[in-house]
Predict the 3D structure of the following.
Amino acid sequence: MIKPHPTTVLMYHAVSDADDGRSRADAHYSVSQARFLEQLQLIRDAGQRPRSVQSLLLCPQASAVAFTFDDGDVSNAWAAQALHDVGGSGDFFVNTQTVGKAGHLSWQALRDMTAAGMSIQSHAHTHRYLDELTPVEVVQELHTSKVMLEDKLGCPVELFAPPGGRMPAGMHLTTKRLGYKAICSSRVALWRDLRFDDIPRLAVLRGTTSLQFSKWLAQDRVELLRQRLRYSALTSGKQLLGKTYYERVRRGLLRLASGGR
Ligand SMILES: [Zn+2]
């Protein structure tokens, strides 16, 4: 399948106001409802339409912007409704172990979102980092989540988003073998037609400005390079500092990179 144009693929976590009380997501990753509606308007103004990656794999569209959400935060039901209200869709990557737990979407909410045309996909069974697991555990994470989602929602689960964006070597072979079509990774780039099995994404954070967002829609090269440098600074920091220490300083680095907000 050939994509007609590079596609901007957005990655959200919670879409929630800080004082919501229900969402348990890290505030740094939470986009407010007002900001989310503003971003939908920017997409309309740019003559583009919100779509799920899953729908674009089936039916490529030049004017599409792909919406993805990681972690199954309870606030994602509101975001799904907002997408539905503008005739759009998105992919929601959930951890099957936390479905129905405090702060997370319930199975009923996922069924309602499926009925509204949303794509529900796998973010593994737990949120453990796959590069810290044995190969057998990795297979269990991918297989259990896929089977549970397909069994409870009755829809094909074909996409996988690795927790924390972290993957062991050979991950694409494992996902293919288990029946996944593609991985939605944390690699920073546009989705081009050459690498269908690794779909890069741009993380929308609380500090993402309207100007930045508009540049992502316009696929501005300088802005994308800036995002890529920020991401490689974060990942090389992980290698240099060691994973445990890295986790402690990661938040500080992210805040600096996004302008201290
Ligand atoms: Zn996650």
In short: Residues 15 and 78 are 8 Å apart (CA to CA). The two ends are 40 Å apart (CA to CA). The mean pLDDT is 89. The domain at 8-219 is CATH 3.20.20.370 (TIM Barrel).
